[in-house]
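Predict the 3D structure for this chain.
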Amino acid sequence: MSLLQKLDDDLKSSLKASDSLRVSVVRMAKAAIKYRQIDKGAELSDDDILSVLSVLAKQRRESIEQFSKGGREDLAEKERQELAILQSYLPQQLTAEELDRLVTEAIRESAAQGPQDFGKLMRLVMPKVKGAADGKVVSQRAKDLLEKT
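Done. Predicted structure below.
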């Protein structure tokens, strides 16, 4: 079953169950996917859909951080709930150990010598973790591990 079909099925079941939050999040995701599809001018693959969902999840994480800093825990909690729904469509997130292993392998593979090779390293790592790890976390771990080499 494609990811788009899963979203359609979940929208129908959420409407029947009167789950307004899930309906709202799935509709928002479908709208973003449709916008991206129009922008691209072709049908989206599951990888493209995962990319759109990853961007939406990243936006929620940033909103949570900003709302928490601003003392708006009520809004931060709503964003957390939306993030949880979005993450249910994304692949299982990598653990810190799995991420470190992937970055270390990429360092060996790219023969990166230090921070100057950061771009080369990230070009190898990001396609492997697509949707399974936040880019900011990957970037920070890559910088930390590169400094140790």
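Residues 96-148 form a domain with the Arc Repressor Mutant, subunit A fold (CATH 1.10.10.410).
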